[in-house]
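Sample entry follows:

:::
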Amino acid sequence: MTTRGRTILFALAILGCSSTSARAESSERAEARKHFERGKAAYSSSDYETAIREFKESYRLYPLPELLFNVARSHEAMGQHEEAIRTYREYLRADPQNVAEVRARIVNLQLVMEKQRAEREQTESAREQRARQEERARIAALDEEQRRERRRRSRGALVGWITAGTGVAAAALGGIFVGLAKSKQAEAERAFKSGQEYSSIAGLERQGRNFGIAGPVLLAAGGAALVAGGVLIFAYRRDAASERTATWFAPIALQGGGALCAGGRF
């Protein structure tokens, strides 16, 4: 018979006997016996929560120290180690016969609790390490995304400068062509007045018309390219200025409370 069985039966024997007569048991003892029997049955069926409740009620009605041992064993079976140790120590104050066994159980429970505490700390440390790694990976990904965005804007700005430069060159060439058109027209008029051949005069007029057509076209195209390039450059500068003055806020946990951390680029 196990120690648990001997303790339960011992308590049952006490509850079932009287110094005078078994037939003269008090109503409290009879009621305590009923709760003990229920606790014993619940313990045997691994219903430890019910066993604890019944053993405690039996102890309230008839405070036998052995009932505390049964309560402690039920807490231990449920994994409630701290409560089991507390109840075992309360039981030891009655100076029972199985002191060595109870003390060994307390030591064993303390070792189990220490092991569980170490495992929890290890698990928590691993969880925090994973969280830090994930946060570093997230920050690295964000930095890479920001670098790609800056490269994209830099390319946009470069395209803007190239477009604007092309526009300036086209507009300048258009202005030259407009000037050449006027020059050829004036030269054709002088040739006509001086009586030069018709073919010479017609060639000068044709060149003037060609320059007159190409000049305004180049002026318009150059102006459009200059505006487009300016828009690209402005957009890049605006984004860059916005990035330089970016602000951020982040909550941080502190012992006993928390705080809001703010920062930015200016």
